[in-house]
Each structure stands twice: as C-alpha cells, then as structure tokens.
Amino acid sequence: MKRIFVVGGAGKIARYLAPRLAKQGDQALSLYRHFDQEPALKALSAIPVYGDLQKLSPESLALLMDGCDAVVFTAGAGGKGGTATTTAVDGVGLEKSVEAAKLAGIKRFILVSAFPEAGRGRHISDTFEHYMQVKKAADVYLAATDLDWVIVRPGTLTDDAATARINTGLAIRYGHVSRDNVAATLAYIVAHDSINRVIIELTDGDTPIEQVLTPLARY
Ligand SMILES: NC(=O)c1ccc[n+]([C@@H]2O[C@H](COP(=O)([O-])OP(=O)(O)OC[C@H]3O[C@@H](n4cnc5c(N)ncnc54)[C@H](OP(=O)(O)O)[C@@H]3O)[C@@H](O)[C@H]2O)c1
Known about the structure:
nine-stranded mixed sheet, two-stranded parallel sheet, 11 strands, 219 residues, Rossmann fold, NAD(P)-bd_dom_sf, NAD(P)-bd_dom, binds NADP nicotinamide-adenine-dinucleotide phosphate, alpha/beta, NAD-dependent dehydratase
C-alpha cells in the first residue's frame, strides 16, 4: 500500500482520486483547509490532513507528509484572490511542497499542471496569462529537481463521467478532459513508478488508460 499525500486534497480532482487510490489498495492523505470538508473526505476513503498551504512552512508541511511514498499536487487558487493568491498557491505553494517532499525524504512527486495551449486563439485576461506563467514556472521548478517527478498537463477540465479512455503523450492536440479521467490517470501513474521524469499532455480520448500510458514508462 502506498501512502499518497495530496496537496489540494479537498479539490474536485482530488475527490475523484482518493477513492480510486483506495480501490487499488493505496491511501490518500488529503490536505484540506476548511473543517467542514473533513467528513466528505473521510467518506471518500481519504485521511484528512488539516493545513493551509499559504501558512505552512516547508518544514511544517514536511512533518505532515512524513511517512508518505509520493506527493500529488493538485492545488490551485482557481482565480480566487487575484494574481497574488495564484502566485502564493499555484507557484510558491508548489515550491514549498517540493521542498517539503525533499525534507520528508519523498522522492516521487506528481504535479497537475495546465495545458500550454489553454487560451490560445482567444482573448485572455491578464489574470489568466499570469496563471499560465505561474503554472509554467512551477513545471520548471519541479523539473529542475532530482526528484522522480511526473508533470500532467490536462486540457480544459469537465465534470463528465470517467470513460477511462484518454489521449495522452508528450505533445497532443488541445481538448477537454473530465476530472475523473485525470484522477484515473493520476492513480495509474501512482501505481507505475516506471512512468518517471516525463511531462504528459492529457485530454479525453479513445484509448484505454493503460494502453496509452504504457509506452511512456521507462524500464
Ligand atoms: N480548470 C481547468 O480547466 C484546468 C485545466 C488544467 C489544469 N487545471 C489545474 O487543475 C487543478 C485542480 O483542478 P480542480 O478542478 O480539482 O480544482 P479545485 O477543485 O479548485 O481544487 C483546488 C484545491 O486547492 C485547494 N487550495 C487552494 N488554496 C489552498 C491553500 N492555501 N491551502 C490548501 N489548499 C488550497 C482548494 O481548497 P478549497 O477547497 O479550500 O478552496 C481546492 O480544494 C487546478 O487548481 C488547476 O490549476 C485546471
């Protein structure tokens, strides 16, 4: 059984991920910051871990991560609180989480990032441009470490039901992807350590997850 520390553990992707991890015999430890989220996380088979990413130091976050096998980072400000909060959560929060993983001796780190083409071909706000810059800087930060990282760049997220059929690869056409398909992909990556040090783009597609992810593994 792997213990997976989920930063952004009360988020929508994370809520799909926790039961998927449980189903494959793994355990989500889900960071959350509002006490009323705790019962729902327990009901999803997660162990709720209270903490605010903006307030935690890398050292205190490392203590919360102690004993985990991997970190999944799927936190995000979601545009709330302006550019400063995006920087604090999606940017500095990611950097803190990486440093905390190192301090806790956790090698594996899986980051939910964003698809670079998001916003292409339409007029985007300064806020969205800032978000995309922060997301890319987070990818750069993680990829420069010697951790066993995987960066997943989903297309536009939907709440459609999971199909367990996706399109993924080093470079694919932009599209939508259901949060549950993202969660299923993350769970598959958690279970397969051989998928390592790779950036993958992700949309809904026609191919079963294992079939499309297996070629990305490094043996
Ligand atoms: N929307 C898209 O189309 C899209 C596309 C590609 C990638 N993404 C990325 O995918 C990520 C996950 O998506 P999602 O739908 O699961 O988002 P979500 O439901 O907004 O989840 C993000 C989680 O981060 C948590 N968070 C924010 N600030 C925090 C803090 N200071 N301390 C602890 N937790 C904090 C939020 O906590 P609360 O529940 O307490 O607010 C929330 O639960 C997004 O954040 C985004 O960066 C999004």
